Protein: 5-carboxymethyl-2-hydroxymuconate Delta-isomerase
Amino acid sequence: MPQITVEHSPYLDHVEWEEFALALHPVVVETAAAKLEACKTRVLRTEDEAVGGETKNHAIVHVTLALLAGRSEETKAKLTEAVVELLRKHVEPEDGLTVHLSAEVRDLDASYTKAVL
Structure:
């Protein structure tokens, strides 16, 4: 915990996603009382996407943060706002490209189990 997934459009391959992840982890620690060593981020490149009635000229970045249950709605909202603000600092749009940034926090299911080998 936290399990973080970043999904991004192929139009945004130029972004330094590892740098974003390393900047994101301290934000999660500070905002959601997580432990730095517990933060894990996967970055996934999407292939096919559409926004409205278009399949071109749009890029999407969506960050999902899965945390153990117990955080207030206020904490979750503060975290998603901080994530979107951090995305703004790392994602620079190209001319003619509209970039859609979003984030959500969800609670991990009670069945969540992890092991470190």
About this structure: Residues 73-90 form the longest helix (18 residues). The helical segments are 17-32, 73-90. The chain has a mean pLDDT of 95.
